[in-house]
Amino acid sequence: MNFSPVNIMGTMPEIYLTVLGCLLFLMEPFVPAKKRSLLGVFAIFSLVFAMIATFGLNGKGLPLYQGLYIVDPFSNFFKTVIYLGTIITILFSLPYLEKEEIHLGEYYGFLLFAAVGMMIMVSAGDLITLFLGIELMSLCLYVLVGLKRNSNRSVEASFKYFLLGAFAAAIFLYGISLLYGASGTETLSGLAQFVANPGALRPMVLAGMILTMVGFAFKVSAAPFHMWTPDVYEGAPTVVTGFMASVGKVAAFGVFLRVFWVAFSANRDHWSLLIITAAILSMIVGNIVALVQTNIKRMLAYSSIGHAGYAVIALLNPSRDSLFALMFYMFAYLFMTLGAFGIILILRRKGIEAEEISDFVGLNKKNPMAAFLMLIFMFSLAGIPPFGGFLAKFYVFMAAVHAGYTWLAVVGVLLSAVGAYYYIRVVMAMYMKDPVEPVEFTPNRMEGMALFVTAGMTVLLGIFPLPFVHYIETSLAILVP
Amino acid sequence: MTFLSVPILTFLIFFPVVASLLILPFYKKPGTEGVVKWTALGITVIEFLVSLSLLIGNNPHLYQMQFVENHLWIPFGNIHYALGIDGISLVLVIMTTFLMPMTILTSWVGISKNLPLFMINLLVLEGAMIGVFCATDFVLFYVFWEAMLIPMYLIIGVWGGPNRIYAAIKFFLYTLAGSLLLLVAIIALYFVGGHTFDITRLSGQHYGMNFQILAFLAMFVAFAVKIPMFPFHTWLPDAHVEAPTAGSVILASIMLKMGAYGFLRFSLPMFPDASHFFAPMILTLSVIAIIWGAFMALAQEDMKKLIAYSSVSHMGVVTLGIFVANTQGIEGALMQMLNHGITTGALFLCIGVLYDRSHSRLLSEYGGLAKQMPVYSTLLVIFALSSLALPGTNSFVGEFLVLIGSFKTHAVVSSLATTGVILSAMYLLYLLSRVVWGVYTPKSYAMPDLRAYEWGSLIPLVVMVIVIGLLPNPVLSLFHQSVAHLVGQMQPAPLALLHN
């Protein structure tokens, strides 16, 4: 490994965040309990700082450390999304943690480290680096999910996530070792060369590829590896759920895409069927099981499984269309999911988090603003224009049709018509029924800002997406010829 | 053409949406209902007056899109913000802006809860509906087409009758499921038709027959649900019965036309060969709709349901005219769309007048209104006669043209469709004999005659019924060129082209 200035400079954002995250841990004992929110502000500034550093790197693709680490517009796009998502999460966390009495200083440190893990994932040019990133993210998330130490659900969720996550990691690692055994390399470019060689498709490579795919499918919670999602999403503190469902998923998709398009694009025929199966299963499970949920966090968990199904469709065919579709999807998905969880965590009935759909009954009577924002997020998640979720789905279907999978697009749209039902059920509860028990919706300034940003972006991505489309187009120049 | 230096079509689409923000300050302020109502009325009236300038600026001798606007909206996928209208969309836009003030007036006392939100919904809906008729980019069209669902869903679901939630969800899911296949067809067209969503450029190409058939079917579902054609109509009676009067009027008069508009704007010019191929099936479905809708209307006790089924029957005439695909047929269909909008809208308004007074729509609860409400009864009779296509009223022109057009090529179909006219006379005269004449019932006792706002909502419609009935030519000449061009595009392709 060569620690030349170029390499160091290229990984500066990660280094900043790691150092600042350590600093956060060190500062934590010296900050009085009442001023813990300052740590949150510090974390936000760290992220902004790292974001500026990332923008500074926005040049052409740089393979650093002999190809172990790749800094290119593609990874920078995902990093920007990760920063934005983490900042919004922190804005939501400050008051929420106070109310739930789990305001620990370490929270912010773990959040930053999780973000670093995700950044390493999307920049990884090598399967071991990738594994490091995934584990860094996962370990932080295990802790964050169990943050409510006094709540059985939270601890159970954390334990479940940890066990299943460890399994998935082991399977993933096994896949890597098979690939290494077959090809003698674990860098993505080396694997790509090896796979492109016609004699290379030995069972070992195929097995390794499938096992890595299982690992990714677990991380993006695509069926049939989705079982952990509803329980963990329900049990985790809502703000952590939002973070996992949005930012965590975005990062996992980024790396999923890079590995399969760079390393395995030569044997696309061998994995496209698996991707199609995962897509269809996820859309079916996500959209149909969500219909019968009464807990809105569980419902959103199934909805996120369904969304994973749509998004993996974009992995099928390595082309500009698909890449754009996936990046746009992730961008739009981040804001609408975070926003929806944001509403849930602000809403309280008798001081307790209101997480049943029945708690939303009649919301429009008391809090028209909350109801309207939730309406935006729900219709956007359902893919109804003029919101960002519509264009996201539109581009995914467009990519599918372009790749010759028109029938898959038809299956997708039909299932999204099924899925629309549970989203509009929330709108129905808010607008068309009379309130039974009063709920409070009192966002403070930070939460208000976060809601404003998420809702604003959801609308903007639907009616005036031009600047974001330009930004995404500049970010996809490198990866696809 | 511009208005206040905003291009006219953009103005028409976004003025009601933006102006609806004026109502926002009165949200949750009791005692401000008057201001809200007058503001909304003012906005829709201004919108109507501005839309009249389309008539002045329009050149009826051109079939091309006019008042064209075109900007790149989303570069990825070449999606444009492209607007334009020809004769066909022109009449529908004007009909929309003409009817919206009536819907505000009919909600004058009928809507008591959360009035500002209701008015905002109506205004947003107006903008989206005009957008549907003006969009010349397929994606933009789709955005308006679906965005329309959100306010309509709320209008039915929040301000509707006792079973409103069921009706609202049924309406939403039916239309959504239909439209999503349209989305796939749009995307497929993009790749087949040369990487563009421009409607004009996508029309008039002769695509391969297999593609035409598949894409036609995908679009057919979307439009047939909206119209609604015979097997897809089950959402309509529910939605109509539960929706508040304004919602029923908009549904019947404007939204149902969008399906027919879709056939005229997309299916026929883009897939002419598939349209010819499927015409026998659609003509059959139309005739079934005409007769079956009429029989169902005969059996109804609820007045709104009666009119809802009569809509199914009348829209059957429209699809019949469209798919005989000659000039008379299509012109007749367009006339029928316009007239159905005016007449059925008026009938729903009339039912709303009764419902506001006695909260019942059952035929059995009324009788002898001619004595109690002479003015109202007169108007109701005029609208009912117009609806049964009495010569001299507007609907006669449309139905007659459709029947002539279809008789030339499909004499049997045409003869069967004629029975629809007779049946419509049966159910409408039955309605009149129960409500206007007949014996007094307790409900109809001491019902005051029309109030000022009700005069305002009904008189313009009576005027239109008679004016169009006596002088249809100025209206026909508006879309004559566009229809002629459309019929030209429908010429069957040489066989060689189809098999490439």
Strand content of chain A: under 5%
Strand arrangement, major sheet of chain A:
4-3-5
The assembly state of the depicted protein chains is heterodimer
Distance between the termini of chain B: 43 Å
Dominant shape of chain A: globular
Q: Determine the mean pLDDT of chain B.
A: 88
| SS-based class of chain A | mainly alpha
* H/E element sequence of chain A: HHHEEHHHHHHHHHHHEEHHHHEHH
Set out the fold topology.
The complex is a heterodimer of chains A (481) and B (500).
Chain A: H1 5-10, H2 12-27, H3 37-56, E1 62-64, E2 69-71, H4 73-100, H5 106-123, H6 127-145, H7 152-183, H8 188-196, H9 203-219, H10 228-235, H11 238-263, H12 268-289, H13 296-313, H14 320-346, E3 347-349, E4 352-353, H15 363-366, H16 368-382, H17 388-402, H18 406-432, E5 440-441, H19 445-463, H20 466-475
Antiparallel strand pairs in A: 1-2, 3-4, 3-5
Chain B: E1 2-3, E2 6-7, H1 8-19, H2 33-57, E3 66-74, E4 79-85, H3 87-106, H4 115-134, H5 138-147, H6 149-159, H7 164-192, H8 199-202, H9 209-226, H10 235-242, H11 245-270, H12 272-298, H13 303-324, H14 327-358, H15 369-372, H16 374-387, H17 394-409, H18 411-435, H19 452-470, H20 473-489, H21 495-498
Antiparallel strand pairs in B: 1-2, 3-4
Helix pairs in contact in B: 1-2, 1-4, 2-3, 2-4, 3-4, 3-11, 3-14, 3-19, 3-20, 4-5, 4-6, 5-7, 6-7, 7-9, 7-10, 9-11, 9-12, 10-11, 10-13, 11-12, 11-13, 11-14, 12-13, 12-18, 13-14, 13-17, 13-18, 14-16, 14-17, 14-19, 14-20, 16-18, 16-19, 17-18, 17-19
